[in-house]
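Suppose you are handed a protein chain with no further information: no name, no annotation, nothing but its sequence. What can you learn? This example shows the usual starting point.
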Amino acid sequence: MSFAPSSLRSRVTTVVLILSLVSPWRARADLFGGDVVVLSGILFESLTQGYTLTQQLLATKAQLEATLNSAKMLSEADFGQVQQLLLQTNQSLQAIQTTVGSVDRQFEALTANRDLSQVRFSEFAAHYGGWLQQINSTVTTARQLQMQVTNVQQANSQSAQSILARSSSADGEVRQLQSILQMLAVMQSQLGSLIQHLDASGRVTSTMAANAAAEKQMAEETRRRRLDGYQERGPRPEVRKGLPEVRMR
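A reasonable first move is to predict its three-dimensional structure. Written in structure tokens, the prediction is:
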């Protein structure tokens, strides 16, 4: 997946123009208070922001790695904890990027060069389940990583307090731990934003899937009503047993 700056700007501009040019009476409203154009724009924006946040987290991870490598005074236990977190962060963010990129490419392929105001939710019905499953997996991965960051934060904070309790002159090691704690706090904030955007993508996908199901149900009900009584021929005609009587004048 490639979110080049020029490509990103052009795609965002396209979404904004579509939203501004579609007149209220042309935007096909759904049963849940949105339409394909609006929800597609929200989904695109959420996926794009999610991908951008993973890039920012990778940059923060690189800074944390540089800080760790320069922290010569850390204990082996503290160093190992942060090093393991860096490894897990890299794996988790790459997995999230791959998944978000896959959903975005599929969605873009389905909507490219199309007037979204004329698209029905049910046209993407075969994809909603897969998209939702993939997006939910990224949320789970991000939450697990957030929990690991919290655990390392707590462990480093306790180590710093323990060091100060043992020796007031060990301020060098404490400062190094505090620098790492600051970087971990930045990661926590970024992970919180990432989870919010991924959650939003999941909610929008769920809404689109619900609308697709509603469209299918309405189509089936319409078909049922059209066929209802189609084979009924009405009351049977009276069958005469003989010829009608003819009266002569």
